[in-house]
Amino acid sequence: xxxxxxxxxxxxxxxDEDVLALLQDIAxxxxxxxxxxxxxxxxxxxxxxxxxxxxxxxxxxxxxRARFFLNTMMENFVPAPWKNVEWIHLEAGPAxxxxxxxxxxxxPEQEFPYHTxxxxxxxxxxxxxxxxxxxxxxxxxxxxxxxxxxxxxxxPGQPLIYLVVVxxxxxxxxx
Length: 175
Known about the structure:
By secondary structure, the protein is of the alpha+beta class. The protein is built from five helices and eleven strands. The strands form two sheets. Strands 1-2-3-10-5-8 form a six-stranded antiparallel β-sheet, covered by helices on one side. A five-stranded antiparallel β-sheet has the order 7-6-9-4-11, with no helix packed on it. Helix 4 (52-59) packs across helix 5. The radius of gyration is 20 Å and the shape is globular. The model has no long low-confidence stretch (mean pLDDT 86).
């Protein structure tokens, strides 16, 4: 069905913005209470599922392995060298050989120290958000790529949890 819709849109020459405009005119339908409860229970039982494929691609592992990492991370965090920060080192696939790959959990409003990286740092925000020292804000679901050194502060509310893939990270304060 989805393929037929995409083909029809292509044939008609509709662009993404045209489709979005059409969709905004459609009134939302409220599901029956029982169906909504079932859907919400499923979403709450698998909160990390929306990140599985993105994580698998970034870390170069199978979707099953990414799902395992995400579903077991809460029991596997260990203290990091910084106050109110915990982490998990992950075993990545061949495309990330030599990279530091892991998931970090940072307490709300906690500052994360300035660090540099010779190559690109890729961050996928899984929960919460952070404000970089340049003022940019990144929230759950966003992919952030950075080349220069930086520090950041976790946003208030819930802990910041993020996946990071980086090569050559250095923390001047630990040197």
